[in-house]
Amino acid sequence: MSSEQVTGTRPPRVPLYNDPRVRSVIYQLALAAIIAFLVYSATNNAIEHLRRANIASGFGFWNQTAGFDISQSLIPYSSTLSTYGTAFWVGLLNTLLVAVLGIVLATILGFVVGISRLSKNWLVARVAGGYVETIRNIPLLLQLLFWYNGVLKALPDLRDSYVVAGGIYINNRGFYVPEPVARPGFGWVELAFVVGIVAAIAYSVWARRRQMRTGQQAPVLWVSLALVIVLPVAVLVLAGMPIHFESPQAGRFNISGGLEVVPEFAALLFGLTIYTAAFIAEVVRAGILAVSHGQVEAAYSLGVKPGPTLRLIVVPQAMRVIIPPLTSQYLNLIKNSSLAVAIGYPDLVQIFTGTVLNQTGQAMEVVAITMAVYLTISLVTSGLMNIYNRRMALVER
Amino acid sequence: MTMAEGDLAVTKLHFVRDLHLPPKPAPQRLTGPIGWVRANLLSTPTNMVLTVIVALLLFWVVRGLLDFLILDAVWTGTDREACLMSTQHREIGACWPFVWERLPYFTYGSYPIPERWRVDAFFVLLAIGVAWLLWLKAPRRDLGAFYFFVVLPIVSYILLHGFEAIGLPVVDTVLWGGVLVTIVVATVGIVVSLPIGILLALGRRSRMPTVRFFSTLFIEFVRGVPLITVLFMASVMLPLFVPRQFEPDKLLRALIGIALFASAYMAEVVRAGLQAIPKGQYEGAMAVGLSYSPMMRLIVLPQALRITIPNIVNTYIGLFKDTTLVTIIGIFDLLHTVEVARIDPKWATPVTSTTGYAVAAMFYLVFCYGMSRYARATEARLRKGDKR
Questions:
Q1: Cα dihedral sign, B77-B78-B83-B89
Q2: Residue extents of the structural domains in chain B
């Protein structure tokens, strides 16, 4: 083949339908058309259905009176005066309450179990392993029903309540614990608490700077604990105990006074914590195993004790591996809290897709609002964890 | 040894032992059971305390379980009287006669009794399919895959739902229940989620922006909301979206919800596998002139799926546990039948609920644990293949 021929040749003519760019445009147009058609016909059908069933649409129900009771509410709520909008906020707050408490408790339990699984103590490691394998392989819903119906509802009824020292009543209607009630002068204690926290932060900043400068360590943990706990307690005593505990009083048919923890909440919190902790334990174990063994050996050869080795060498490095899967476990816990609907804890799903949906019949709006809330929570949580992750990530050159 | 003359006296003094002594065994307290206990249970004071606490805890749990499930359990009886503390005058554990009597209900739900052989046949056909696919040395595994993914769904549908033309009366899905529904929901989720998940994963990694946008939107949306809201959407919103004459029945709605949910999670698992395939594989495939579909089918996906098998199985375990959520939208799966049976006045005792839950827990535990062992074995096998 001579060179003139090569330079003279144009690119071979490809039929239009074989041109990758044209094909890609056609495919995309087809996909967009199909989806547009599906959305269009679904909307049409929905409008038709709603018109025939005579169901209102739009978000007008938000300001109507709800007219149903909610067993646990963090904000003032009454069945006769409050609107569906208020019911929404009650449900959302209840969801957030159980999710936040669950995340904190599950993290603590999960780290303990995960580290125990790697313990040199054979028994401890085995028991932790058995816990993880059992709990992970039983559906959460089954566990929740067990805690609720099998344990908490099987407690004795009101008249035979267990009474724990200090005025705690336990029966099948819930836990009743003494409620602390502030008396005038309690403000000083609150002030001392805030001062303690500020002082503790200041102290730890100072200690860190000093350690950077001179290498001397300071007992930050103990000093902080003293500032945050001992200081307010001291003020409390000095101010003449401006607090009293309102004990629950057992009546004939109910218990009055005190702080009531409904069994639905206790079962949900218990179930979520135990279930998620098993998954977090696996995440933690994988993270610790991912830290090369040389790191531990190097620490030991420098004379660092096992405790500080774990705290200062292993965990900070393991955190980099742990955080991404830990985030998805937190998200799972938040989403799993929606199983509250099965045991009747008034969370967002139970109130909204349960009662409100039944009363208004406006399935689309109600399900859309609920989904939007969970999507927002998911996005915000993963956003926060991403920021933390970026701070912890290895700074590479 | 060389020595100078006249050094004899010194030589005599030398003593070199030329006999090898056998090594002494290590001291008793470092080896054997005692040594093991000392090293593994009692190495430090903290460990001693921990061992004691955990041993007590373990004893308490095992003792409680043994008492409940076996020692205090009631084994025979005809109704609640047998399992009541007030009539039996003793500590009562699990109420097994309740389970014996309700076992058919837990297995078939309200499926008509003369037709229950069809459910048994379905279980057998399914077991054959599963064994064919999981047993690595089985003959013609390609045929097995065809059987599992094409033949089995059609045959099962005809068998379970019925087909008047060949003399199988139609059994409405509202009568299905128990283990049957749990297995059907799980199997449909497993069979459907893998292909859709692969398509979504490919879509999310596609170079076409529209395809990528819609795939990502679907995956992120479904993964961001709880399964229960997806199920609510499927059960209350889906009927609004389709013309009245095509309104799907209740079980089908739940199946659609579960399948969509599982697909989104599967897509992310497959995507991770696709990302793990080195670029050279794609480039090699393109260099030999393969276009997109053969490249994916012959080069990329076989490798990507192979390394994701453990994760796929883990997703299946999650899916299997998640099937319990259909209880909430009123489908009679195993958990729902337990929930119904436990409040039946004939058997209502303080221990009935826990007995029912224990049976369900054992069922899920056996299946999920089996799957996770399989995933772990596969992982070990893959690792062995990579070792040099």
A1: negative
A2: 171-334
